[in-house]
Amino acid sequence: MASERNGDGGEKRAENGGGGVEMPEIRYTKLFINGSFVDAVSGKTFETRDPRTGDAIASIAEGDKEDVDLAVRAAREAFDHGKWPRMSGSERGKIMTKYADLLEQHAEELTKLESLDAGKLVVVTRAVDIGASVGTLRYFAGAADKIHGETLKMSRQFQGHTLREPMGVAGLIIPWNFPSIMFFTKVAPALAAGCTMVVKPAEQTPLSALYVAHLAKQAGVPDGVINVVTGFGPTAGAAIASHMDVDMVSFTGSTAVGRLVMEASARSNLKPVSLELGGKSPLIIFDDADVDMAVDLAIGANFFNKGEACVAASRVYLQEGIYDRFEKKLADSLKNWVVGDPFDPRVNQGPQVDKAQYERVLSYIEHGKREGATVLTGGKPCGQKGYYIDPTVFTDVKDDMIIAKEEIFGPVMCLMKFRTVEEVIAKANDTRYGLAAGVVTKDIDVANRMTRSIRAGVVWVNCYFAMDADCPFGGRKMSGYGKDASMHALDKFLAVKSVVTPVYDSPWL
Amino acid sequence: MGSNEGGACDGKAGSVVVPEIKFTKLFINGEFVDAASGKTFETRDPRTGDVLAHVAEADKADVDIAVHAAREAFEHGKWPRMSGYERGRVMNKLADLMEQHTEELALLDGADAGKLLLLGKIIDIPAAVQMLRYYAGGADKIHGESLRVSGKYQGYTLKEPIGVVGVIIPWNFPSLMFFLKISPALAAGCTVVVKPAEQTPLSALYYAHLAKLTEYVVQAGIPDGVINVVPGFGPTAGAAIASHMDVDSVAFTGSGEVGRLIMEASARSNLKTVSLELGGKSPLIIFDDADIDMAVELSRLAIFFNKGEVCVAGSRVYVQEGIYDEFVKKAVVAAQNWKVGDPFDVTTNMGPQVDKEQFERVLRYIDLGKSEGATLLTGGKPAADKGYYIEPTIFADVKEDMQIAQDEIFGPVMSLMKFKTIDEAIEKANCTKYGLAAGIITKDLNIANRVSRSVRAGTVWVNCYFAFDPEAPFGGYKMSGFGRDQGMMAIDKYMQVKSVITAVPDSPWY
Questions:
Q1: What pLDDT was estimated at residue A17?
Q2: What's the rounded Cα separation, in Å, for the pair B434 and B454?
Q3: % chain A with pLDDT above 70
Q4: Considering Cα of A498, then A504, then A507, then A508, what sign does the dihedral take?
Q5: PANTHER family, alphabetically (chain A) (predicted)?
Q6: Are residues A247 and A298 in the same domain?
Q7: Which of A11, A107, A307, B247 is deepest in the core (most CB within 10 A)?
């Protein structure tokens, strides 16, 4: 049952979900600047669509340079003259904890908005995405009063210490695959550090960011500390990256756009940049692996969140002894894999986030076929409506094929065979990416050798996607630089100042 | 050793002492080689303007060979696979050799950069040695963390060397800059390709020779390919490093304009990590309760040390009105007593600017200051007919919006300004695009604490200036750059953090 109301755009309800789930009303569709929801200066709006059907679900204010200027100005006021950076860490922590409480109280509504906007499984969004968002916010709430500098003895008659001070106004540009998690992954440490910020959520998934902005206000986050400017990369995103009054930018997204963000910083005010970019992460399964466990891991690593994960283990290397058993078990397991409406709790995989991604993935699948890889299962769209794709596995993949080298960002797994440890280490590292890797083995020496040899920011042994608020996360090589999660995530939002004073007449130095 | 006629500007028609220049070729993979093109460039003695030596000129082809050598040494060589302790031992050996050759090194920097010979022997070279020894001792103290993590997992972080590091350094402290950058990189287990400034290539090549010499002192030395030195120009050799697809990180100290180019080059090539230490317009803030004589001496040092060619030079001096008049009188006398002359003369306080370009640039700013309406109190012109000597210069009645108050001059030019209240001083101190350093002179604890917290700068000196130490992190806020040198923190620029998480199904507790 769909209903529409007149008046300012955005008050519509989308198609109900599988199992009769009633859709949320979309209440927040405007830019959030200095504590208020406002139209874009230009009055323009853009549509966000339901990937189950391709239908528009809401008209969202479209921020551009002028709106970014207003948001940055509000953030600058809030930083230079407002309370937030001048509160103690524990006071900030208290407000952040209240914010986390509100998130939990509104988990259901937020879950529905996010699942609707991004095609994410509602069961998973509720438990994992919103759960992790709350967890991240609580982690950094507890970190705000644990930001330490150091005292330095120094040679000669001096005393030194370092102060870690908030950088200032942070520009946060986030992607559409985990909208809430990404929002809090960036916002939480920035808040803890005492920074103020301008967030640009992805144009595909603006709904949850605007929703949690209203909760921030309720929690007591002062006006201007968090600003949300919805819009597109080349306009709003570029305006942030090249703004002369933004002190740093943290970006998660594609490598291609990561470059533009870094260039824009170089050309504007040399703001420090941290980038979390793409990946082509290897999952390496040795002969001694438990086949059932390995298959489950590979399926999760490739098809979780419809393959729209930067750490997706899109290259699966199987040692030759286990290859045949694995392939058979994988094909069997995928027979029961259900692609469908993400609001239906029986479904394993929802639609790709939008038409562009859908078409992109399908074109990679065609590449794979043309390049001579064998389709073990899938390899085509699922259904006539919306952006659903069958879980796809290619075998007989050669390392130099496009499907083995480029990030597909969809439910496409490439299976490859290997014989020795040396061989698979070389293959695993033969990529410009370096985000994550997985190793499945019981042998302690193999595990240790692999973890030391793979050039990636996170290595999972006998598990995958095991993220934690306290575990640093980030890439190397062209997967980017800088860490999210853990106390390390605070570093990008803090400037280190050394203070040095002569100390005369000290009993010792 | 050669000599030429009439260098010093103390009126004596004497000769300058020119050191023997032994190393003038590129140092790649343990050997001194010509540039692939065979080209050379001249490095000049700023005391006379005469050519000191013809040095091999590296370009892209040479950088490719150097990076290749560094890559080999990293992927297949011993250096990253040695324990931190062993690397530290080798680094200490290099430090020993530097100590043994202090005189020769100081002579090279003196002739190449116009730096005081005496200070080279007692400050520059020893500080470079201390820096190297600091990181030699730090190489076996690089720690990751273990992480409990929720769920049935165990996690830990590994800090691994990032790989091949490109180092692009300036000409004002050739020896110190060389070791400031390479020491933490070597401690981390990285290999390096260094491009010294074209104005001052000589000491870098000498250090390359000493690095090779470590092999002969006792068995183990710095393996070939670990340190490579490719003198040349920014737009050619420097650009080749910044945009190289096989360099993993670049560390740069120099001007803001070039810093931008390096960051852009990285964005367009392989997104290598970048750290930039750029310019400054650092304020020295002197309160009424300061000891005037101490303040005069400190402010003189802060701007005229190393002929003002220091990124943290205290080029804006804010004096509280209560002591302003007495301060100005004494500051002028002190500036006039700051002796300009041959840097090899132990009585000289200040040598020549590093080259003709810098010399002319500083003089242009002095003219600008005059035309902007600042009052010239002393100096303001060249100090000799030959070479690149400039008189210690002080402008008063400088307004914040004058270019001489906003731009980095990088020469012996002080801008003096008066202030009334602490709020005014803080606001003015922060009103440039830079944020490298600041100095505060006061006896009042509350003023010292308030101002040190309020000034947006990477280093704040209270009742001192230029108090550097390998332990204290050094780097900029705002457009003075990002990333820190010195301290154990500097090693992090050259390391990657890897999180390793293992499922732990059967643990007595989590």
A1: 64
A2: 14
A3: 96
A4: positive
A5: ALDEHYDE DEHYDROGENASE-RELATED
A6: no
A7: B247
CA distance B433 to chain A (A): 9
Grade residue B12 by pLDDT with cuts at 50, 70 and 90.
Answer: very low
For residues B220 and A7, which has the higher predicted lDDT (pLDDT)? B220
Mark whether A433 and A339 lie in a shared domain. Answer: yes
* Phi and psi angles of residue B290, each rounded to the nearest 5 degrees, phi first: -70, 150
Domain containing residue A212: CATH number: 3.40.605.10
Residues A199, A139 share a domain: yes
At the top level of CATH, the class of B283-469 is alpha beta
Q: Residue B32 is encoded by which pair of tokens?
A: 């001194």
Torsion of CA B288, B294, B299, B305, to 10 degrees: -170
- Gap between the Cα atoms of A36 and A222, Å rounded: 11
Contact A369, A36 (CB under 8 A): no
Q: Is B302 on the interface with A (CB under 8 A)?
A: no
How many independent structural domains does chain A possess?
2
- Are A253 and A362 in a shared domain? no
Q: Phi, psi at residue A177, to the nearest 5°?
A: -80, -35
Asked whether residue A175 is assigned to any structural domain, the reply reads yes
Q: Are residues A295 and A213 in the same domain?
A: no
pLDDT tens profile B168-200: 999 999 999 999 999 999 999 999 999 999 999
Which residues contact residue A18 at a Cβ distance below 8 angstroms, ignoring those fewer than 6 apart? A340, A341, A343, A344, A347
Q: Among A277, A304, A320, where does a domain finish?
A: A277
Cβ pair A156:B475 closer than 8 A: no
**From A499, which residue of chain B is nearest by alpha-carbon distance?**
B460
Task: Tell me the pTM.
Answer: 0.89
Domain edges within chain B: 26-278+484-497, 283-469
Residues A315, A221 share a domain: no
pLDDT band (50, 70, 90) for residue A18: low
- B503 with A262: Cβ contact below 8 A: no
A276 assigned to active site: yes
Would you say residue A391 lies in a domain? yes
Those residues with Cβ within 8 angstroms of residue A184's Cβ, 6 or more apart along the chain or in another chain = A132, A133, A136, A137, A212
For chain B, the residue count is 510
What would the two tokens of residue B239 be? 């650009």
Note the pLDDT tens digit of each residue in B293-350. 999 999 999 999 999 999 999 999 999 999 999 999 999 999 999 999 999 999 999 9
CATH number of the domain bearing residue A304: 3.40.309.10
Please report the pLDDT score of residue A11 as a whole number. 42
Q: How many CA atoms lie within 13 A of B43 on its CB side?
A: 31
Q: What is the extent of the structural domain holding A414?
A: 282-471
> Would the CB atoms of B271 and A457 count as touching at under 8 Å?
no
Does residue A495 lie within any of the structural domains? no
Q: Nearest C-alpha of chain A: how many angstroms from B69?
A: 19
Tell me the C-alpha distance between B474 and B177, whole Å. 12
CATH of domain B26-278+484-497: 3.40.605.10
- The verdict on A167 and A291 lying in the same domain is no
The neighbour count for residue B253, using CB atoms within 10 Å, is 25
